[in-house]
Amino acid sequence: MADPAAAAPQSGGPSPAASPDPGPSKLLIADDNLPNCELLDAVLSEQGHEVAFAHDGAETLEVASAAAEQGAPFDLVLLDIMMPKLSGYEVCQRMKADPALASTPVLMVTALHETGDIEKAVDAGCDDFLSKPINGVELKTRVRSLLRVRHLTNERDRLLAYLSEVDDREKPPGAAA
Fold it and tell me: What is the pTM of this model?
């Protein structure tokens, strides 16, 4: 399994310059089926992504939380619905309820095809879903779209922090916040 802290960003604070290429994205694949992990890894690693694995729901939360606590959260979690210990639905709900993980996009990858299963995934907070068997083009497209949103959101947050810092510096001494 890849080290979740390996790509911890080093920053001296916000800067007005545009962010450089965010580099490889960090993905967490959560699936208890090894062949599914290997397939997803083959497609996504080929795209230059750093991939880590979790094989049950509880481990998924542990790995995602540890990465966030180390300042190197995952950019995307690909989450199977039917896993031991905690289902993908439960994992997604807990991630979205945790402020440190709530902004991490979740792509549900599932063999379940019923409308009710998809509705339950959306209600749990997933950002998108993909049905098995996996179509490589569809997987790459959905991952690319979710990562684009993630990186734009990060850039917006970085710029807002910079503007706030500039605004604070321009206030006269003793001015109310």
Answer: 0.78
